[in-house]
């Protein structure tokens, strides 16, 4: 299974370590195409915004499922989720705190889960992937 993990990059570097842990857990279920999201020191200056967009779109198209942490609001994550919806990809969003965007939680095609700890989100992810094994 090819997994597209999405999380805020330019505005969410405070969660890079958490993303890295989530990505590590996701590897139990398949290939994570966007492993770089969990890197503490991303070298975004090495490629252009156009190259970033085109590479991410290629990964999004190739993916079987989208897993997103939507705790930190991000235009890029929202864009990826919207494009994933157009492609009819299964999308699972996870967030800390009481609420996330109504555009995410209010969309019946997106499954949304609230979590507080790393262990809790890992358990929720396990539940998501159990559905794929049925």
Automatic annotation (TrEMBL):
Reaction catalyzed: a purine 2'-deoxyribonucleoside 5'-phosphate + H2O = a purine nucleobase + 2-deoxy-D-ribose 5-phosphate; a pyrimidine 2'-deoxyribonucleoside 5'-phosphate + H2O = a pyrimidine nucleobase + 2-deoxy-D-ribose 5-phosphate; 5-hydroxymethyl-dUMP + H2O = 5-hydroxymethyluracil + 2-deoxy-D-ribose 5-phosphate
GO MF: 5-hydroxymethyl-dUMP N-hydrolase activity
EC id: 3.2.2.-
Cross-referenced Gene3D superfamilies: 3.40.50.450
Binding residues annotated for substrate, in chain numbering: 4-10, 19, 80, 101-103
Pfam entry (one): Nuc_deoxyrib_tr
Main enzyme class: hydrolase
GO biological process: one example: deoxyribonucleoside monophosphate catabolic process
InterPro entries given in the database record: 2'-dNMP_N-hydrolase (IPR051239), DNPH1 (IPR028607), Nucleoside_deoxyribTrfase (IPR007710)
Keywords: Glycosidase, Hydrolase, Nucleotide metabolism
HAMAP family registered for this protein in UniProt: Nuc_phosphate_hydrolase
Protein's job: Catalyzes the cleavage of the N-glycosidic bond of deoxyribonucleoside 5'-monophosphates to yield deoxyribose 5-phosphate and a purine or pyrimidine base.
Complexes and interactors: Monomer and homodimer.
Family under the similarity heading: Belongs to the 2'-deoxynucleoside 5'-phosphate N-hydrolase 1 family.
Protein name per the record: Putative 2'-deoxynucleoside 5'-phosphate N-hydrolase 1
């Amino acid at each position: 299974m090819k997994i597209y993990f999405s999380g805020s990059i330019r505005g969410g570097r405070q969660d890079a370590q958490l993303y890295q842990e989530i990505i590590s857990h996701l590897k139990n279920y398949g290939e994570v195409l966007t492993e770089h999201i969990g890197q503490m020191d991303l070298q975004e200056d090495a490629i252009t915004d156009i190259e970033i967009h085109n590479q991410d779109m290629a990964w999004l198209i190739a993916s079987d499922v989208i897993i997103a942490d939507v705790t930190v609001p991000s235009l890029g994550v929202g864009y990826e989720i919207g494009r994933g919806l157009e492609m009819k990809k299964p999308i699972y969003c996870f967030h800390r705190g009481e609420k996330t965007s109504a555009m995410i939680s209010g969309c019946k095609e997106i499954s949304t889960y609230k979590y507080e700890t790393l262990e809790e989100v890992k358990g929720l992810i396990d539940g998501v992937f159990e559905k794929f094994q049925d």
